[in-house]
Design goal:
The chain is mainly α and about 425 residues long. It contains 19 helices and 2 strands. It has a two-stranded antiparallel ribbon with strand order 1-2. Helix 4 packs across helix 14, helix 5 runs antiparallel to helix 6 and helix 14 packs across helix 15.
Amino acid sequence: MTATATSTPPPAAPKVSGGKGGLTRLSFPVVLLIVAGALLALSAVRAITGAQDVTSAGQISAALAMAVPIGLAGLGGLWAERAGVVNIGLEGMMILGTFFGAWAGWQTNPWIGVLAGVIGGMLGGLLHAVATVTFGVDHIISGIAINILALGFTTYFAKLWFNTGEAAAKGGSPKQSPPSDDITSVTIPGLSDWLHSIEKHHWFFVSDVAGVIGGLVTNVSLLTVLAAVLFAVTFFVLWKTSFGLRLRSCGENPIAAESLGVNVYRYKYIAVIISGGMAGLGGAFLSLVTSHIYNEGQTGGRGYIGLAAMIFGNWRPGGLAMGAGLFGFADALQLRNGGESVHALLLLLVVVLALLAVWKLYRKSFVQGAVSAVIAAAVLVWYLATDTVPTEFVSATPYIVTLLVLSLSAQRLRMPKADGMRYRKGQGK
């Protein structure tokens, strides 16, 4: 393939507008209405099925803990792809974050471990930037290679560093590190207890709201607070500063950006290294907050789910946060009486699919509408004929939710126009 062919910009993306066929950007009040509607639906499911854990503070607290590494991985993907670099290597960068975070955390203190995890992820991001930006390697191939290299690197050095000497004496093994100290968690005194007392009454919607808020203000890790701050900082930097405008221009039209004096290579490097650091921070969260140790296979595909959350969020921090919360909620189900809770949510899935079928039929998409209706009927039969769902299905819930969400949201997505395209320095001169 010639250099001209590889650098040709892709077709123009759909216009972001409120007109027919365009994309409507959700305002903050609309987002609040969506969240309230979702909570109302969960409240109805809880009241009908008796699955009290669906909106409990414990479930929400677990969902928040599961959502943070997914959200940080997705945030890393957002930085890279806004600069035009596809980062499939998020999973490998998370693996490096779990390993280096645990390695430094048990020897010193967990905050040094957090820093080491970020640096480990940044090294993976730097490698990805060198391969894709400087040498023009296909972004997907480079990302997959990083995932394989990270897994091999950590497997080898875990056997070398965690299975001998002081590490082995403190509980290390070829597949796990010694435990590290806890990172401080915070609880808002008074408010947490008051919300818990309201939740115990199981009032419709009121107790559900109390459970959700209670889960967000009880035993929250400081690293979770830092992750929330990073979402706000990312939005401000990328959409409210000249630096962010230049970086996003590299992902939309790098040739035009270079013609206006933007150093495209520099901005791509910065974005991909930050991307790796975000993913590494997500990995450090897994090894220092979720489990306090490094375990082989600890990421469990969360880098890929983070990428899916970013796509679901339409390459914007707010949508990404909603997607990470959804996937985190699904991931937390398997930790807390998952069979009963997932079985209750089958009823909600029936309603969603039925509404989708009605909407597709109204829009004269008869095939899609019929398929949605058939699936809704099948899920309803499954719900009525059983009292719980198999453990294997519960374990697969996060991945099934990922597929469903992406399939339902695919039509409204608008990726950066030059995302994944090769770019060679000097094309804009």
